[in-house]
Amino acid sequence: MKKCLAAFAAITLMSGAPALAADYPVRPVRMLLGYPAGSGIDNVARQVAAGLEKELGQPVVVENKAGALGNLAADFVAKAPADGYTILFTPNSTHAANVHLFKKLPFDPIKDFAPVGTVASLGFVLLVAPEHTKVDNVAQLTKLLKDQPGKYSWGSGNATGQVAGELYKTLAGVDAVNVPYKGVPPALTDLIGGRVSFLFADATLAIPQLKGGRVKALAVTGSKRPTSLPDVPTMDEAGVKGYDLGGWFGIFLPANPPEAVRKTLSAALLKVTGSPEMARFLRGIGAEPLSGGPDDLARVVAVDTEKWGRIIRAAGMTVE
Known about the structure:
Blueprint (H helix, E strand, L loop, with lengths): L1 H21 L6 E5 L6 H17 L3 E5 L6 H8 L7 E6 H10 L11 E16 L9 H10 L5 E4 L2 H14 L4 E4 L3 H9 L5 E5 H10 L3 E5 L25 E9 L4 H15 L2 H9 L2 E6 L1 H22 L5
Parallel strand pairs: 1-2, 1-3, 5-6, 5-7
Antiparallel strand pairs: 3-9, 4-7, 4-8, 4-9, 4-10
Helix pairs in contact: 2-9, 4-11, 6-11
Pfam families: TctC
Keywords: Receptor, Signal
InterPro entries: BUG, Bug_dom1
């Protein structure tokens, strides 16, 4: 009798699993983010979460777990149950750059995650505070740094910002001291206060400050001028030849989720990121829509992991 009951229970559990996955979601979803509230990626994550709530019919709660260039949040999600109720909203740091910036990660960016889809692409903006760093263009900043090597400092609030500065130093042949921050907002505060001389900030946070006139944009880091900053030259156009660096946002699940869960979440994300409303929102804050599914995100990760490795090695950045 015990054997029969055990067998019946096993069959019931096996037959019930797909049904539970097919009903996903039946409770709130946690969206982990490795950067602080108020950061550029935080603004986008909350907009995407609101869209997913409408599509999924359940609350999607953004939780900020800042630190280690996004690694704390990524590690948390990597070790979470793969049931679809804990997801990671992240930039290219955790799944392209950090493998080259840290001697050892507490997670495997490929094996420990299942890609869901891409959200947006974005460039960074080279900023100065005109009250403290009196230059009008990249050429003048480069001359200033070359004339007084090691005197000036620059801030970085994430992996892309850090690599952006190191790439500038390498290609322009300048010397400046990096001051790392836990996020871009505190780096912007110190830029405006004159405690750092320049900063590579994601456009989503740079644009509001530009409108207020407290900072000046010298260049953007991508190969093209973004829709929101048509009058700001690229670094290449500004004289730093060969400069091309951009970032992206994407969503991941822990590895090996039920396929029905991933399909449901990916389909909902595609509706959100493919909407005209999301496109207007992203372009209005300096990003560009990048609507894609699991295979698209997997390809972006593969391409960028190789690209960032080349850039970081060329810049001679020290592995932590």
